[in-house]
Amino acid sequence: MSAADTRENIMSAARKTVQARGYNALSFRDLAAEVGIKSASVHYHFPTKGDLGAALARRYSEDGSGFLAAIKTGSKSARAAMQQYTDIFRSALVDDNRMCLCGIMSAEHDDLPEEVRVEINRFNQMNIAWLSELLAGGSNDARQLKQVRNRALAVFAAIEGAQLIARGQGDIAVYDQIIEGYRQAGLFP
Question: With contact defined as beta carbons under 8 Å apart, do 120 and 53 qualify?
């Protein structure tokens, strides 16, 4: 196995662990056993747990950015774009009742190294900016844009919260029900 393959396998195993049990559940020894390498090899690729956490959040943001760009160019309406957006969060639940990686790590904020917090904040800001653009519908009115940003923040928090509640109940139908309720209440397009 090449060094690049080993690094990717570590990242993949670590992502699944964090999405299922959180950042604090990351153990280099457990990751090494799962990947089939020695613990020292994990440390070779990621000298500290913070380095690994930051790399995970950075990759998650990069992947998310690609998804958001594809939604923006491929959706014919704000409603269709919002449906695709909420489906991204739904897909984590479908994948063995997992959470948004940055959402679950946000819950552990006080325990995170600064480099991980920076990457999580980048993910959050990217989502809020994307939602703001979607909800603004091309408007450039400064006062309206502030209101739109506040709404985007509420939408992002609502989706993360819906995912958390559905996960806690172990029922994806709860997520669907909450998202539809937000749509009916006018929070989403």
Answer: no
Q: Report yes or no: 10 and 35 within 8 Å, Cβ to Cβ.
A: yes
Q: Can you give the pLDDT at residue 144?
A: 83
CATH number at residue 85: 1.10.357.10
Whole-number Å distance between alpha carbons of 184 and 180: 6
Q: Is residue 58, in this structure, part of any structural domain at all? A: yes
Rounded-to-integer distance, Cα 107 and Cα 72, Å? 29
Q: What's the confidence (pLDDT) of residue 20? A: 94
Between CA 76 and CA 124 the distance in angstroms is 25
**Count of the separate structural domains present in the chain:** 1
Question: Which residues, 6+ apart, have CB-to-CB distance to 112 below 8 Å?
Answer: 23, 50, 53, 105, 120
Tokens of 53: 């956490």
User: What are the respective helix, strand and coil percentages of the chain, to the nearest 5?
Assistant: 80, 0, 20
In a domain, 24, yes or no: no
Specify the pTM. Answer: 0.92
